[in-house]
Write a structure and sequence with these properties.
The chain is of the alpha/beta class and 140 residues long. Helices cover 54% and strands 14% of the residues. It has a single domain (2-129), classed as 5'-nuclease (Rossmann fold).
Length: 140
Amino acid sequence: MRYVFVDTDVLIDFLIEREPFSTFSAQLFSLAEQKEITIFLTSLSFSNAFYVLRKFGTRDKLLSKLKEVRLLVKILDVNKKSVDLALASSFTDFEDALQYYSAIQHGKISVIITRNIKDYKLSDFPVLTPESYLKSRVSL
């Protein structure tokens, strides 16, 4: 089983079916549903997604979608160590630093999946777009 960390942008693509990206994000979440991969998100991703997407529908509809996602994923904490590491890091995007250091602490995550690869240029493990990740699975 592959453990993957999915960034908030990919979650948002999936939730609002943002084209052309939603095709790949939907395939990722489908793999999780089929138990072929384990997707990890941080608790921060749920908060950020709700905040960004509140203008796209009713509160109840958005919460319903987030509940569905919750059944497919594992949630990582953003803890004191994540915050301290992010504050001391050279990441240009603080939110991405929090996500990254939360993922690193898990210890078994093998890849970060995001559309904003440049934001993770300091990553010690592979960072792929959803499309690239899905193509790499085919070649394995």
